[in-house]
Predict the structure.
Amino acid sequence: MQILPSRSEITSAAPGIVIVVLPIIVVSELIYWIESYYVRAVFGIPAPIIALMIAAVIAIVSTNLFDLPKKYLSGLSFSTRWLLRTGIVLYGLNFSYSLWIKPGAQWILVIGVVSVIVPLIAAYYLGKIFHLGEKLSLLVAVGTGICGISAIVATQQAIKSDEESAGMALATILTFGTMVLFLYPVLDGIFSLDKTIYGIWTGGTTLDLPQLVAAALQGGGSSSLLMALWVKSIRIGLLVPVILVLILRLGKSATASDNAANSKYARVLSSFPLFIVGFFLVILLNTFIAFPSWIISPIATGNGEFLGLNAANLFLTAAIIGICFRVRRNVIGRTGWKILAVGGLAWCLQSLIIFLLANILPIPQA
C-alpha cells in the first residue's frame, strides 16, 4: 500500500499544480477577501460564500469553457489523491468528541444519528427510483447526512467511485448548501425560532462547517452556533462507521461471485483507506490534547489567521478543483436533474424531520 507519493508523481504533477490549481486558489481567495470585507462592513457577519465554494464554481466553469492540455491533468489527479487525503486528516483538528459527554447529550445524539440515517435511506431508495446508480446515490447521501464536501471526497476514495460522480455530488451539495446559507436565517426571522432549536436544526441539516457557522451566527448568534456545532460533531463522528459499512456492503456484493476469494470480509477491511483512520485518530487526539493556537491555527482551524487560511482548507480546495474539473456538460446532461432531485428531496426530508425533533425532544438549552 502506497503511503506517500513517488518523486515521479510529484514531478509529473508540478505543471498542473502551478499553472491550473494554484491560480484558481489565489483567485478564489481574492474574491473571498473582497466578499468578506464587504459583508462584514455592511452586515457585520462572516462571508457566506467560502473560498472553497468559489474555487469549485471556477473549476466547473473553466472545464466547460476550455479543453485542458494533457500535461496538466496529472496535477489535477495528484490533487484529488494526495492533497485530498492530507487535507482530510488535518481537517480532523477542527473537531472534538468532548461535547458528547455533556448533560442532555443523549437527545443530541439521537438527532445527530437521525440526521445521518434519514438522507442515507432516502437517497439510496430515491436513487433506485430515478435510476441514478448506487455509488452516486451514496455520495449524495453521505454529503447530505454527514459533512458535505469532506464526506463526499472521503467516501469517493473509500468506495472507489469515479471522479465524475464525485464532481456531480459536489455540485449538488454546493447548490443546497448555498440555499441553507440564505434560506435558514430568513425562516428564523419569519418564525422567530428559539435559539436552541434553530441551532439544533442548523447543525443537523447544514452541509459544510463554514456554511454551518455562517448560517448559525446569522440566525441565532453564538448560542445557536454552540448547539449547531454540538450536533455537527456527532455527524462528523459517524463518518468512519458509515464508510466502513458502505465498504462492507459494496465489497460483499463485489466479491460474492469470486470463487477464489478466501475471505471477502478480510479483503474489504484491508481496503479500508488509511487516511480515514488517520482522520478519526486526529479527532480523538484533539479531544484529549489541547494544542496551542499557534500550532493548530495555521494547520487546520485558521483562527486568528488572515481569511482563516490554513493548510487543511488549502489542500481540500486543491482537491475540489481537481474533482470539479470532471464536471463537464456531457456528464451533467446525463444525470444532472436526477441527482438534483435525489439530493433535494433527501435534504428536504432531513430538514423537516430534524426540525420536528428539535421542537419535540427535551433538548438542553444553550
User: Anything to note?
Assistant: The longest helix spans residues 7-43. The chain has one domain: 12-360. The two ends are 46 Å apart (CA to CA). Confidence is low (pLDDT under 50) at residues 255-265.
